[in-house]
Amino acid sequence: MSTVLLLTGGLAAQAQVRPTTPPVYPPPAPLPNDTLRADQVGRSQEFAVPSVVGQGPSKGLIAHLEGLADFKINSDLNDQTPAGKASSTVVKNRRAFIKGYIPVWNHPHLKVILGFNYDREEFQFQNPDNASFYRNLEDKGLKTVGTQLAVIRPVDEVHWYLARVKGELNGDYTSSELSIQDYLKMSGEFIYGWKRSPYLSWGVGAQVGYTFGRQSIYPVILYNRTFNPRWGVESLFPARVTVRRNLNAKTLLFGGYTVDGMNYNIKLREPLANGLQTLILRETELKFRLRLEREIYDFLWFGIEGGYRYNVNFNAVDAASNERTLPQLFSGSRNRVVQNTLGTVPYASIEVFLVPPRKFLKKINQGR
Question: For the whole prediction, is pTM greater than 0.90?
Answer without folding.
Answer: no
